[in-house]
Amino acid sequence: MAIRQLSIFLENRVGRLASVAKALGDAGINIRGLSVADTKDFGILRLIVDDVVAAENVLRSHDTVCQINDVTAVDVDNQPGGLAKVLTALNEAAVNVEYMYAIAEPKGVRPVMIFRFGDAKDAAMAALQKAGVHLYDEQDLLGK
């Protein structure tokens, strides 16, 4: 099960994050989760939005470099060791996590983690399912 995520490449300067948020907000697109990684000169903004194709079109129309990537969203037990359970299943399947971040999901009491696995996506999903970890699809996560 894949969730489509936008990866946006931004110059690391005042106002760039605000301009992306404003463009999406003006287009009626809701940001459901995000992560920002930066260096001195540029940053990568990763977004989970309620309409990824429309968001990509809006951003490209504002000359913003972006691409759509597949990521995996999973439930994590909201207790000590919850994240360790998920990561242990991936480790036992020899799956490398390229990056991960949490998103707020007010519909439930369990945190939702977003993972990017690269070429090992199928092995990762099989390992997580075997470990009893709930995987989301876009309809389940975003209510589409």
UniProtKB/TrEMBL annotation:
<dbReference type="InterPro" id="IPR045865">
    <property type="entry name" value="ACT-like_dom_sf"/>
</dbReference>
<dbReference type="Pfam" id="PF19571">
    <property type="entry name" value="ACT_8"/>
</dbReference>
<dbReference type="InterPro" id="IPR002912">
    <property type="entry name" value="ACT_dom"/>
</dbReference>
<feature type="domain" description="ACT">
    <location>
        <begin position="5"/>
        <end position="82"/>
    </location>
</feature>
<protein>
    <recommendedName>
        <fullName>ACT domain-containing protein</fullName>
    </recommendedName>
</protein>
<dbReference type="InterPro" id="IPR045739">
    <property type="entry name" value="ACT_dom_pair"/>
</dbReference>
